């Protein structure tokens, strides 16, 4: 990882005709290649009182261009050098900053005769790639978007609506549903850009006839893969962002009113957020280190890596030379000058680095099977549902003909009430899932930050060890002992972000608890309504209609549950990537240790025991055979396919896609156990965040394993957020021989264990894992421990992390989460049973009466609200179909529920 200072260049455009007509004086002067002098036009040179104070301010930048600079010069001095890095897998960003009308678009896009940075960069990029394609396979894709009034639009496909901005598990920002064009022709790209630019929101302001009112971002991704098999299947991905920001303007200067004023407010909001980030980042190393809030605007979230992360970044600040723009120029120069202090950490983006992952391939295969199985069940349920719906239509038609007016009215009222109640329940279910989804996102974010901190801790530890070694050999240089190197700002940011994320998690959990309570009440209400059928509705047909309604509702809930389970599996896959990343780093460390030890053995001529020699031989042949590479490719292919399939399914089907399931527990009937994700103990994370010195993901997961371990154990409350501890404390779990795992106990009843551990298949995966581990352990006679987390199996032929450390930890959480939800479902059922007066449901136009409970025969609560649910895409897919609108609906639905809860 290399530290890079942000490069800041300044471009001063020529005096415009309008400025010249106004008689504006020149207030800027370029001195040499790197200096600019700004003169304050308001100061009187004859003012004796201020005679000692200079009316000139000098600013130094990496490059200063004045009106004589050509587009080629600006490009060559700022951007050209980034191309090589992007091809080798590094990220880079160029952004144009400055007040309106100072030439940002001119610099970035340019004109037909004087093309700007976009086209020159792409031209050179393709030329460079052509020269190297003998050795490498390259892929180039680009996307072009604008952020206008805090919403993101695809400039290559404006009809796709507003897009969502997401962070992927590796922490890079993604735009869901954005069009990515693959091409190798710069001319084609120029046409696309011109076309896209026409879609950009552009309006005349007093300062600029063709003012761009939005921030435009052109992203080019270069993927590089070696053609020589011997070098492995390593893929390097370099991303280049080219950003034309909207003008940093003041309303007074641009005389903006109405819509322009509102736009200005949004533009200023994101630019203000950008300014704040620049301020905070530039002071990161200084005494006034501040928190950098990238989340304040879409723009700063998008530029997060460019400013504070993994990117070589160039800022081209723009100013006008006119005295009339003095104030804007001064502010821009101050900001740009500050930005020079920003440092980014640059590292090559490698994907698919060879790593022994056989255990993951089997898990992934399992997940694949589960997903297929669940999908098949979803399809069956859908078929059943449509059959029920058509029956229902027929019966309703008959009911209307055959029954009297009075009974028809009662029937309609009851039906409306039922539908209202079911709809409310479904909305609550979806809101709960959305909250759970948010929790997962928060968790993924937290893990990512933990990884950053772990990386740093490891680097620090290695550095300290090295220093100690040096110290012993060069004592004279080490008077002060080992000095603590300063913590990189990304690590400090990670620590701060973890705290924020934990706070957000607590809020989400509180809202979720309220919603769950509300849902339990709603279910109780619906069950009371069902008991009234026989009294209020006399006709058999009508009763049948209502029963079918309830059945449809039940199916709908079941359907939702299944889809949620599917998505949960997908999420689990995603989390495996994290673990792989972590293990991969550990693997590299181990490799280094092995090499050094081998060198030592050789140098000292130490006799090697036969067993060790055999293992070394095995290790070498493993490397030569490239088995690990193949496994890795298999892993990436399978997980890629799975994700692709999911995306395809989401695009093709109109059924909802949910990240996390809810357990519908209707009318006292136990439904399948709900699953949620609590992959790391939030308590543990909180401790880790607080205890900043010894933070490590491995430590965190070990901790949570340790807390969950032990035969006949109680489910440890330490594995759950504190809000959930009360729910769990009385839940006794006993071990089942053969099913006991090192990561958590099973319910004593086999059926319950199966339900908890593997809802989709017969044998609980934890049990299977246990058997496999035992089998493996028996075969591991020659295995030898390198360090506590790693072992070598004769079957695996390579160093590999012990299974319980990874997948079992996840399984442990999975089991516990299910357990928790089941206990919660049980407790909510009992709570619901105590409710005497049901809360009124919302139904369209028909306020629900409080219905007396009688002792009529119980039947099943059902609902047909499938139509409502269909067409809602509930999971936001990165790089999937555009789903921005639906995710906003989701947000609204969650917020709405949040608000309703508050009101209630
Ligand atoms: N270096 C330059 N040489 C010649 N003309 C320039 C130069 N810089 C800007 N211009 C001209 O000034 C005008 C305004 O430039 P441009 O639209 O690029 O400004 P901007 O900073 O992008 O404004 P906004 O933020 O309002 O979109 C254009 O007509 C452009 O051609």
From TrEMBL:
<dbReference type="InterPro" id="IPR027417">
    <property type="entry name" value="P-loop_NTPase"/>
</dbReference>
<dbReference type="InterPro" id="IPR001752">
    <property type="entry name" value="Kinesin_motor_dom"/>
</dbReference>
<feature type="region of interest" description="Disordered">
    <location>
        <begin position="779"/>
        <end position="807"/>
    </location>
</feature>
<dbReference type="GO" id="GO:0007018">
    <property type="term" value="P:microtubule-based movement"/>
</dbReference>
<keyword id="KW-0963">Cytoplasm</keyword>
<dbReference type="GO" id="GO:0008017">
    <property type="term" value="F:microtubule binding"/>
</dbReference>
<feature type="binding site">
    <location>
        <begin position="98"/>
        <end position="105"/>
    </location>
    <ligand>
        <name>ATP</name>
    </ligand>
</feature>
<dbReference type="GO" id="GO:0005874">
    <property type="term" value="C:microtubule"/>
</dbReference>
<keyword id="KW-0969">Cilium</keyword>
<dbReference type="InterPro" id="IPR036961">
    <property type="entry name" value="Kinesin_motor_dom_sf"/>
</dbReference>
<feature type="domain" description="Kinesin motor">
    <location>
        <begin position="5"/>
        <end position="342"/>
    </location>
</feature>
<dbReference type="Pfam" id="PF00225">
    <property type="entry name" value="Kinesin"/>
</dbReference>
<feature type="coiled-coil region">
    <location>
        <begin position="357"/>
        <end position="398"/>
    </location>
</feature>
<dbReference type="GO" id="GO:0003777">
    <property type="term" value="F:microtubule motor activity"/>
</dbReference>
<keyword id="KW-0206">Cytoskeleton</keyword>
<feature type="compositionally biased region" description="Polar residues">
    <location>
        <begin position="857"/>
        <end position="867"/>
    </location>
</feature>
<keyword id="KW-0547">Nucleotide-binding</keyword>
<keyword id="KW-0175">Coiled coil</keyword>
<keyword id="KW-0505">Motor protein</keyword>
<protein>
    <recommendedName>
        <fullName>Kinesin-like protein</fullName>
    </recommendedName>
</protein>
<dbReference type="GO" id="GO:0005524">
    <property type="term" value="F:ATP binding"/>
</dbReference>
<keyword id="KW-0493">Microtubule</keyword>
<feature type="coiled-coil region">
    <location>
        <begin position="505"/>
        <end position="532"/>
    </location>
</feature>
<feature type="compositionally biased region" description="Polar residues">
    <location>
        <begin position="886"/>
        <end position="898"/>
    </location>
</feature>
<comment type="similarity">
    <text>Belongs to the TRAFAC class myosin-kinesin ATPase superfamily. Kinesin family.</text>
</comment>
<feature type="compositionally biased region" description="Basic and acidic residues">
    <location>
        <begin position="459"/>
        <end position="471"/>
    </location>
</feature>
<dbReference type="InterPro" id="IPR027640">
    <property type="entry name" value="Kinesin-like_fam"/>
</dbReference>
<keyword id="KW-0067">ATP-binding</keyword>
<feature type="region of interest" description="Disordered">
    <location>
        <begin position="843"/>
        <end position="904"/>
    </location>
</feature>
<comment type="function">
    <text>Plus end-directed microtubule-dependent motor protein that regulates the length of motile cilia by mediating depolymerization of microtubules at ciliary tips.</text>
</comment>
<dbReference type="InterPro" id="IPR019821">
    <property type="entry name" value="Kinesin_motor_CS"/>
</dbReference>
<dbReference type="GO" id="GO:0005929">
    <property type="term" value="C:cilium"/>
</dbReference>
<keyword id="KW-0966">Cell projection</keyword>
<feature type="region of interest" description="Disordered">
    <location>
        <begin position="459"/>
        <end position="490"/>
    </location>
</feature>
């Amino acid at each position: 990882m290399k530290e890079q200072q942000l490069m800041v260049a300044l471009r001063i455009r020529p005096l415009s005709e309008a400025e010249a007509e106004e008689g504006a004086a020149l207030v800027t002067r370029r001195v040499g290649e790197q200096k600019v002098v700004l003169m304050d036009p308001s100061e009187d040179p004859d003012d004796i009182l201020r005679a000692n104070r200079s009316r000139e301010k000098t600013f130094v930048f990496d490059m200063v261009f004045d009106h004589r600079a050509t587009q080629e010069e600006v490009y060559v001095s700022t951007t050209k050098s980034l191309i090589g890095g992007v091809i080798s897998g590094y990220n880079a960003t160029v952004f144009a900053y400055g007040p309106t009308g100072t030439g940002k678009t001119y610099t970035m896009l340019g004109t037909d005769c004087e093309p700007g940075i976009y086209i020159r960069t792409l031209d050179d990029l393709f030329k460079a790639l052509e020269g190297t394609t003998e050795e490498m396979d390259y892929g180039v894709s680009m996307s072009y978007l604008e952020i206008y009034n805090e919403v993101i639009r695809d400039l290559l496909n404006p009809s796709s609506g507003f897009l969502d901005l997401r962070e992927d598990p590796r922490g890079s920002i993604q735009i869901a549903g954005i069009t990515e064009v693959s091409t190798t022709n710069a001319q084609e790209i120029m046409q696309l850009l011109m076309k896209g630019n026409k879609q950009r929101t552009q309006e005349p302001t007093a300062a600029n006839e063709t003012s761009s009112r939005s921030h435009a971002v052109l992203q080019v991704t270069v993927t590089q893969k070696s053609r020589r098999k011997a070098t492995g299947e390593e893929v390097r991905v370099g991303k280049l962002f080219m950003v034309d920001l909207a003008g940093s303007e003041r309303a007074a200067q641009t005389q903006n009113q109405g819509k322009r004023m509102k736009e200005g407010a949004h533009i200023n909001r994101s630019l203000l957020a950008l300014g704040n980030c620049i301020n905070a980042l530039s002071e990161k190393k200084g005494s006034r280190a501040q928190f950098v809030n990238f989340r304040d605007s879409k723009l700063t979230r998008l530029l997060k890596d460019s400013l504070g992360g993994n990117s070589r970044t160039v800022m081209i600040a723009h100013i006008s030379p006119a005295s009339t723009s003095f104030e804007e120029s001064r502010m821009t120069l101050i900001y740009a000058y500050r930005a020079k202090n920003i440092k980014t950490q640059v590292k090559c983006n490698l994907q698919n680095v060879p790593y022994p992952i056989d255990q993951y391939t089997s898990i992934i295969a399992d997940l694949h099977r589960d997903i297929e199985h669940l999908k098949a069940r979803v399809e069956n349920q859908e078929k059943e549902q449509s059959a029920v719906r058509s029956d229902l239509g027929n019966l309703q038609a008959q009911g209307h003909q055959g029954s009297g007016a009075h009974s028809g009215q009662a029937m309609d009222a009851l039906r409306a009430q039922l539908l209202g109640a079911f709809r409310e329940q479904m909305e609550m279910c979806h809101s709960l899932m959305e909250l759970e989804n948010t929790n997962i996102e928060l968790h993924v974010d937290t893990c990512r930050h933990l990884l950053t901190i772990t990386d740093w801790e490891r680097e620090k530890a290695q550095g300290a060890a090295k220093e100690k070694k040096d110290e012993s050999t060069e004592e004279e240089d080490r008077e002060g002992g080992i000095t603590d190197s300063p913590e990189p700002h990304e690590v400090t940011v990670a620590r701060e972000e973890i705290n924020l994320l934990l706070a957000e998690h607590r809020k989400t959990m509180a809202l979720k608890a309220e919603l769950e309570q509300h849902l339990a009440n709603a279910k109780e209400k619906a069950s009371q309504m069902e008991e009234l059928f026989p009294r209020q509705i006399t006709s058999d047909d009508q009763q049948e209609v209502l029963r079918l309604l309830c059945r449809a509702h039940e199916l709908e809930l079941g359907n939702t549950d299944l889809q949620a389970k599917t998505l949960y599996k997908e999420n689990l896959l995603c989390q495996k990537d994290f673990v792989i990343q972590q293990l991969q780093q550990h693997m590299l460390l181990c490799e280094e240790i092995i090499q050094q030890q081998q060198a030592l053995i050789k140098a000292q001529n130490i006799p090697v025991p036969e067993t060790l020699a055999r293992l070394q031989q095995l290790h070498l042949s493993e490397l030569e055979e490239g088995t690990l590479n193949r496994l890795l490719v298999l892993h990436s292919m399978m997980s890629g396919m799975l994700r692709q399939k999911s995306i395809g399914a989401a695009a093709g089907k109109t059924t909802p896609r949910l990240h996390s399931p809810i357990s519908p527990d209707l009318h006292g009937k136990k439904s399948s156990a709900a699953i949620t994700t609590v992959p790391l103990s939030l308590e543990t994370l909180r401790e880790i965040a607080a205890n900043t010195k010894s933070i490590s993901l491995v430590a965190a997961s070990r901790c949570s394993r340790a807390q969950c371990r032990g035969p006949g154990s109680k489910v440890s409350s330490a594995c759950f957020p504190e809000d959930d501890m009360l729910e769990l404390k009385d839940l006794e779990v006993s071990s089942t021989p053969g099913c006991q795992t090192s990561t958590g106990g099973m319910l004593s009843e086999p059926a319950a264990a199966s339900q908890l551990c593997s809802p989709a298949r017969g044998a609980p995966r934890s049990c299977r894992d246990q058997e496999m581990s035992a089998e493996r352990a028996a075969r591991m006679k020659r295995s030898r421990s390198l360090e506590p987390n790693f072992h070598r199996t004769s079957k695996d032929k390579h160093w590999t992390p012990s299974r319980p450390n990874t997948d079992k930890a996840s399984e442990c959480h999975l089991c516990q989460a299910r357990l928790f939800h089941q206990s919660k479902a049980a407790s909510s059922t009992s709570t619901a049973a105590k409710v005497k007066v049901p809360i009124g449901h919302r139904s369209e136009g028909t306020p629900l009466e409080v219905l007396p409970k009688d002792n009529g025969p119980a039947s099943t609560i059902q609902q047909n609200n499938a139509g409502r649910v269909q067409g809602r895409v509930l999971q936001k897919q990165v790089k999937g179909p555009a789903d921005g609108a639906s995710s906003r609906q989701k947000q609204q639905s969650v917020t709405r529920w949040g608000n309703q809860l508050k009101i209630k």
